Write the structure tokens for this entry.
Amino acid sequence: MFNWNDLRFLLAVGREGSTLAAARSLGVNQSTVQRRLAELEARLGERLVERQASGYRLTDLGMAAFGRAEAVETAADGFAHAVQDLGRGTRGVVRLTCPEPIAIRLAQSGFVDRFQARHRGLTIEFVLKDSYVDLARGEADVALRSGDTDDAVLVGRRIATSLWAVYASRDYIARHGAPSGPEDMPGHMLIGFEAAMARHRAVIWLNEVAPGAGYAARSTSVLGLISAAKAGVGVAPLPMSLGDMEPELVRLFGPVAALTRDWRILAHPDQRQSPRIEAFFRFVLAETEALRPILTG
């Protein structure tokens, strides 16, 4: 049986491209890396690395083994975090607030299942509203938000980019044509947010590029904008992560720079260091690559 710890050296060489760089990343001597790799190859009876003038590279078998070694690394990391959570008594519910369409896509993507598989004492409860919920008042524990907020108290991290573009249905385009850019927007019926959301960047942008234009529909939610656009009544600015997923809609132009914002994971400072919230933050940051298609498109 080989030493599982030797996989760390295979991973480091695969990532760094040389035993010297791998040694630096692991904080050991170069000779230690070479010895541990040789021991791993001897135990397995297979060549995993080969030396070239430019440094070490993985053999074809080594490349195949590299992916399996990463899976072992992920499992070991998950095991360590799970034990830490158990030791700290990490139990309970993480109340997550985010836009309703994002909540649906998170659930469908397996994000919730993966979190609860890693943290078996925790469950996610979605808190869904058309407006921002107040974390300081305890209405939710964590928020996934994009755009501008007035709450400078919350702390968090950027995890993705929110991109918006302009869409219309195929039926609308067939009947009325399509704007090719912001300068054409005044000649079309628009779909936008209600006046109660006057501070939303999409409302401000439409007022700037198409002042005085007619509106075919207004809504207080992104889902309402999507429904109206699919009905063919006008053109609408929409998040690309949602608009691109609708087969009835055509992206006319974008992304629109004026509508681009950061997606952030946020919590109140009083809650940020609690074991529940720390576990959720840690998981989200580890899932950044998987979240980008959901949040950015």
Observations:
- The longest strand covers residues 155-162.
- Residues 60-87 form the longest helix (28 residues).
- Residues 40 and 50 are 14 Å apart (CA to CA).
- The chain is about 45% helix and 20% strand.
